[in-house]
């Protein structure tokens, strides 16, 4: 394995914009849920005339689903808050007939009541169920794949220390389903998965913490050098660092 300094320097210099994780190919792996979110998204997109994707990132997942869909919605919009992602999403989705709207990921959504037959989101920071209900037409549906509780906590706690009960309960699928119902939606599908993650070198860990900035807020190599060196030594001796992500699929319908 290459030296600690070489791996860290490479990861610090790498691009982390957009929502493309291909830099980790050969360096980290994560199991995928068995339900196949992008396939389900493509199926739903092919049946509606107006669709909205919330917190679309760089538009990669939606673009792939559109390419596989039987038809493209006549009205297609997406929201995103981070400027580097906005540029990527605009390029990816504009070529497929979509419009990307800059939005701070806080209510209200910049769309009229009942504007969409389908609202979707993959890994939203937070689902604002009242707004989702408002912009859905009667009979319309929400389809999302969300990050669940205690996702990647094995890695996060290496840097932050043990997290409390409230943090461990965060993003629980039962709580999200209850919130969706409280906003007037009928939950028609709720599935969960716990998935193995492996990081094979310290560069992969540096890169993922630079990209997923809410895992270890304020992460820098300089600030966490001791922890990184300890992890590097452990991985060289014991093999890949193993953590687990959690995901849930939620589908809800407005009556």
Strand-residue fraction? Answer: 25-35%
Proportion of helical residues: 25-40%
Structural class: alpha/beta
- Tally of DSSP helical segments: 10
**DSSP E strands, number:** 8
Which fold does the CATH topology refer to?
A: Rossmann fold
**Strand arrangement across the biggest beta sheet:** 1-7-8-6-5-2-3-4
**Spans of at least 5 consecutive residues with low confidence:** none
Helix-strand topology string: HEHEHEHEEHEHHHEHHE
> How far apart, in Å, are the first and last alpha carbons?
57 Å
Report the top-level CATH class.
Answer: Alpha Beta
Number of domains: 1
Basic shape:
globular
What is the rounded Rg?
19 Å
CATH architecture tag? 3-Layer(aba) Sandwich
- Can you tell me the CATH superfamily? Vaccinia Virus protein VP39
Q: How are the elements arranged and paired?
A:
Layout: H1 4-13, E1 28-30, H2 37-45, E2 50-53, H3 60-68, E3 75-80, H4 83-94, E4 99-102, E5 116-122, H5 129-135, E6 136-147, H6 153-160, H7 165-169, H8 173-182, E7 185-199, H9 202-211, H10 225-238, E8 241-254
Parallel strand pairs: 2-3, 2-5, 3-4, 5-6
Antiparallel strand pairs: 1-7, 6-8, 7-8
Helix pairs in contact: 1-9, 2-3
Task: Supply the key terms.
25% strand, 8 strands, 255 residues, alpha/beta, Rossmann fold, single chain
């Amino acid at each position: 394995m290459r030296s600690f300094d070489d791996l860290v320097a490479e990861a610090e210099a790498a691009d982390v914009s957009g929502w493309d994780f291909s830099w980790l190919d050969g360096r980290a792996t994560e199991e995928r849920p068995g339900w196949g979110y992008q396939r389900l998204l493509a199926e739903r997109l092919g049946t509606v005339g107006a669709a909205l994707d919330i917190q679309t990132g760089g538009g990669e997942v939606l673009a792939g689903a559109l390419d596989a869909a039987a038809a493209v919605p006549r009205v297609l919009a997406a929201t995103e808050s981070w400027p580097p992602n906005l540029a990527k999403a605009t390029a990816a989705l504009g070529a497929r007939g979509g419009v990307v709207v800059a939005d701070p990921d806080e209510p209200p959504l910049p769309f009229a009541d009942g504007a969409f037959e389908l609202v979707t989101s993959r890994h939203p920071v937070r689902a604002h169920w009242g707004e989702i209900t408002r912009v859905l037409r009667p009979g319309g549906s929400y389809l999302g794949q969300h990050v669940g509780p205690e996702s990647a906590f094995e890695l996060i706690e290496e840097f932050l220390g043990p997290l409390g009960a409230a943090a461990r309960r965060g993003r629980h699928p039962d709580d999200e389903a209850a919130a969706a119902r409280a906003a007037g939606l009928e939950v028609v599908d709720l599935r969960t998965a716990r998935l193995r993650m492996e990081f094979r070198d310290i560069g992969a860990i540096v890169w993922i913490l630079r990209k997923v900035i809410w895992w270890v807020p304020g992460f820098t190599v300089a600030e966490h050098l001791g922890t990184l060196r300890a992890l590097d030594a452990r991985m060289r001796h014991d093999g890949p660092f193993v953590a687990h992500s959690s995901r849930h699929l939620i589908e809800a319908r407005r009556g």
